[in-house]
Design goal:
The chain has 241 residues and is mainly alpha-helical. The protein folds into two domains: 79 residues, no CATH class; 149 residues, no CATH class. The chain is elongated, with a radius of gyration of 28 Å.
């Protein structure tokens, strides 16, 4: 509460009153199903609305919708990353299980301690590489320009991005996975990986991200339309009184 009053005091005496009044209008707007409900609420308390009342109501209407739009845009990246993290987890598990199969096949007769050590080394390097992949994907999602691409452009974009992400993992594994006396070499791993499957995962992840942005944009347009309708409704009601 002290932080709130400190923030309010920054606007000065006159500004503080205006800000508090505006916040009150926004709260009333949120609680009101329609702008007419808010208008009637004011009417019960004042016989005639002043220009100040009208300005506050219009300001509140705009702020209410801007807040909703902000929240929807804020949730875009969260929804995109949530889906990516789910797929990344599945992909990491698949690669680890595939490595274990290779180790069982090529590690026959090898020291159990060596097998365990190299398996742990691979898993740790792979998981750390996926952290780098996550950072790169988040960066791509933040740009969000791919939702405006044509289908052909989007296909080329995803294929290029998948190649980049694969190279990040390969580079990280080459640096941090053991190379001396490796039972399962990286060359063996890279040669047998199903790159078509990786590409399919890329299209799934970026296709979902594209849909999330497009749905958010449609919702934003809907909110802007409702904003316009609420303002028109308020002004029409104002003219009749």
């Amino acid at each position: 509460m002290e932080d709130f009053f400190d923030w309010i005091s920054k606007f000065g005496p006159s500004g503080s009153i205006f800000v508090i009044a505006a916040l009150l209008v926004i709260m009333l707007l949120i609680k009101s199903d329609t702008i007419i409900d808010l208008f009637q609420w004011f009417a019960k308390r004042k016989g005639k609305k002043s220009c100040g009342d009208c300005v506050l109501i219009l300001f509140g209407i705009r702020e209410k919708y801007e807040l909703e739009i902000y929240q929807k845009n804020k949730n875009i990246l969260r929804a995109q990353m949530s889906y990516f993290e789910q797929k990344a987890h599945e992909l990491t598990l698949w690669l680890i299980l595939s490595f274990q199969d290779d180790m069982e096949k090529l590690g026959v007769g090898k020291s159990p301690a060596l097998v365990l050590s190299q398996s742990c080394n691979y898993q740790e390097a792979l998981k750390n590489a996926m952290v780098c992949v996550k950072d790169e994907v988040r960066k791509a999602f933040k740009e969000n320009g791919f939702h405006e691409l044509s289908d052909q452009e989007f296909t080329a974009y995803v294929k290029s991005k998948v190649k980049t992400l694969i190279s990040i993992v390969q580079s990280y594994l080459t640096t941090y996975y053991t190379s001396a006396d490796a039972i399962v070499t990286l060359k063996y791993r890279f040669d047998k990986i199903d790159y078509n499957r990786l590409t399919d995962v890329g299209f799934d992840v970026f296709g979902n991200a594209r849909n999330v942005v497009q749905e958010a944009k449609l919702a934003e347009e809907g909110l802007k339309k409702r904003l316009s309708e609420d303002i028109d409704s308020f002004l029409e009601k104002l003219e009749k009184n």
